[in-house]
Design brief:
By secondary structure, the chain is of the alpha/beta class. Among the domains are: about 210-265 and about 425-475; about 265-420. It contains 17 helices and 15 strands. It has a six-stranded antiparallel beta sheet. β6 (about 115-125) and β7 form a beta hairpin. It starts with a strand and ends in a 9-residue tail after the last strand.
């Protein structure tokens, strides 16, 4: 089977009609590489493959318990003008040497509160309505649903295959689907139904009436549960989600109008008043400070001049006071020298000196005195000039800086205060916002109530089923063909036992081959021949047992994370080989959570050889650098799923991220 192309039209994030050519250009280049950021449409691409092939039975990532038609409706691109979407896949399939070409087209349209789907199949260009009508049973010829997970899977999830209890259930499901054991399981279910019918036939009218009543009640309860489930899904999709989107738009308008400031209006008012009080207190402190010696800073030069003048006047006063004292002293000194018969020249020289000194002092003492400062005033002036001015300047600077900050705080608070919208401006949006919130709360209560009712009905269904089982099991028919019924029931038990033995025999017969293929795949990926010698799968529990070269059992949980991931890949690879079907493989997030040491193992030993057509959907942090270089010889086509945040849409462009398209 070869997937030739897929066309996505308004599906999920893929706006408009976009076609991707998936045909490998040659056998040597089987890999089709699609790059995309997280949330850019990689998983949606994988969902599109499953949805087109399997329709309502597709195991897509985002459907969950949503009703199929609701899921189709929600997957239409939001901006689609015609409210319709479609997926088209072209593929080739070889049967007995003849190759046929198929085109699957699954489209749906939303309108009048519902969603209508159309499915068309073309074979070699001719429309095949019968094939389309019976596609649910015919698709297994091309891609069986029960083994699809072996070929279409998420790389981040496959490690579960190699860990604990979950690996057993997943491996069991894979082996059951691979070997067709699900037919045996269905036969056992049919036997149980037949046994119940046969046991019912043996009951009297009262018991039959009781059973009929319980079965009627069960049907009504299940119908009610289905109705409530659809009602809850519709409530979420058509009412709650819409109201939430409406609220989001209202919140944007509310924010633009200053709604969050409006909510804080009382707090903002208090902040403005507090800031204004601080300014007033600072102004009062400045006034008190200015009432002291601070104004003297304005006449500092005059004060320094007055201090200098006062010093000069003080020197003049002292000169006047000393003049007479020095005149008398000089006369006494000269007379004493003459009496001691000192040489006349020396006495004359000294007399001249004394006369000149007195002359200077007489001249200094004759200067005019105007200030005549008192000693205490002189001391205050000196103290102010020496230290007081610097202290006053520092204190005033500190006061002014604090007042400036306080005024800036007032300015900021006033801007915020003036930005608060009035109730007239915002009242309509506030009312609409509150109304929408109330409506959402009421819808969520209704949604929760429906969920509780579904749970209650589920418990009621469980009780009625238990009651029905007791009625069927405990009462034995006592009339008519009791012996014949007993024989049939006995044979039913034997057939059930035989089916169980047959299941184990079929699994045991084929599981050895699966073990060999899984072991070969694991050794090829790991290339640690000394690590394991054998691998076995229990036919009953599907538990994996790994034996090392030393003969000791290796616990899978004790393997490194990378080795467990490779073991999980080996399980899928081995099961895929065992299916004997040449099917394409598609892997989302191919390197998953692998560490660097083990990523190269997948790049070199798995991707190029796992399938004749390998679709890899990678982020920009996985297949890059050396990994991309090693893989490039096998890459046939490359694309980038380019997501536009503004338009909320994904475009498919040639080439892998920023690189040019590979040949």
């Amino acid at each position: 089977m070869i997937l030739e192309s897929i066309t996505l039209n308004n599906f999920g994030l893929y706006a408009g009609r976009q076609t991707i050519d998936l045909t490998p250009p040659s056998r040597d280049k089987p890999i089709i590489l699609l790059g995309g950021m997280n949330g850019g449409g990689k998983t949606t691409f994988l969902d599109a493959l499953q949805l087109c092939f399997f329709g309502p039975h597709a195991k897509t990532s985002s459907r969950g318990s949503t009703a199929y038609r609701d899921y189709l409706s929600s997957s239409i691109y939001r901006g689609a003008a015609n409210q319709e979407a479609s997926i088209e896949i072209r593929f080739r399939y070889m049967v007995e040497g003849n190759e046929d070409k198929y085109r699957l087209s699954r489209s749906w349209r939303r309108g009048n509160g519902n969603c209508k789907e159309s499915f068309v199949v073309l074979k070699n260009g001719r429309r095949e309505d019968v094939l389309a009508q019976n596609w649910a049973s015919q698709v297994d010829e091309f891609l069986p649903l029960n083994i699809a997970h072996l070929f279409l899977f998420d790389g981040e999830q496959i490690e579960r295959y190699a860990s604990g209890d979950e690996s057993r259930s997943l491996i069991g499901a894979g082996i059951h689907g691979l070997l067709g054991i699900d037919l045996v399981d269905q036969l056992e279910k049919d036997l149980r139904v037949y046994e119940r019918q046969k046991r019912t036939e043996t009951r009297d009218d009262a018991v039959r009436a009781a059973i009929a009543t319980v079965e009627r009640g069960l049907r009504d309860l299940r119908s009610r549960v289905d109705e409530l489930t659809q009602q809850r899904a519709a409530l979420l999709a058509h009412k709650i989600d819409r109201k939430r989107k409406t609220l989001a738009m209202i919140e944007v308008s509310y924010k633009k109008l200053g709604g969050f400031l409006y909510e804080r209006r009382t707090e903002i008012e208090h902040e403005l008043q507090a800031a204004e009080r601080v300014v007033e207190e600072g102004a009062e402190a400045l006034r008190e400070f200015a009432a002291g010696p601070l104004p003297m800073l304005l006449v500092r030069d005059l004060l320094e001049s007055a201090a200098s003048r006062d010093q000069q006047e003080e020197d003049a006063r002292r000169a006047r006071e000393l003049f007479e004292v020095l005149r008398h002293r000089d006369q006494e000194v000269l007379e004493h020298l003459r009496s001691e018969s000192v040489e006349k020249d020396a006495v004359s020289s000294l007399a001249e000196y004394f006369e000149a000194d007195r002359g200077r002092r007489r001249s200094l003492g004759q200067q005019e005195t105007a200030l005549n400062l008192l000693p205490n005033v002189r001391n205050d002036l000196c103290g102010l000039l020496e230290n007081g001015f610097e202290q006053l300047l520092a204190a005033s600077t500190q006061h002014l800086a604090a007042q400036g900050k306080a005024r800036q705080r007032v300015a900021n608070a006033r801007i915020e205060h003036d930005s608060v919208p009035t109730s007239d401006v915002i009242s309509e949006v506030v009312a609409e916002r509150q109304t929408t919130k109330t409506e959402i709360a009421a819808l969520e209560v209704q949604y929760a109530g429906i969920g509780e009712e579904i749970c209650r009905l589920g418990r009621e269904i469980e009780r009625k089923e238990q009651s029905l089982t007791r009625l069927v099991r405990d009462e034995v028919a006592d009339q008519g063909n009791a012996d014949d019924q007993e024989r049939i029931l006995r044979h039913i038990d034997r057939v059930r036992t035989t089916l169980g033995e047959f299941r184990l025999a079929v699994i045991a017969r084929h599981v050895r081959r699966i073990e060999r293929l899984v072991l070969e795949s694991y050794q090829q990926l790991l290339r640690k021949e000394s690590l394991i010698a054998s691998l076995s799968i229990d036919p009953a529990s599907f538990a994996i047992t790994i034996t090392g070269r030393d003969g000791k059992v290796l616990d899978a949980d004790r393997l490194s994370a990378g080795e467990r991931q490779l073991l999980a890949v080996s399980l899928l690879w081995g099961l895929a080989k065992a299916s004997g079907r040449p099917l394409p493989t598609a892997i989302d997030t191919p390197l998953g959570r692998l560490d660097t040491a083990h990523r190269m193992n997948l790049v070199e030993r798995y991707f190029p050889f796992a399938s004749h057509q390998m679709l890899l959907l990678s982020t920009d942090e996985e297949l890059t650098g050396e990994y991309l270089d090693r893989l490039q010889p096998w890459i046939g086509r490359t694309y980038t799923l380019a997501y536009d945040d503004n338009a909320e849409r994904t475009r498919v462009v040639p080439g892998y991220f920023d690189s040019k398209e590979m040949p």
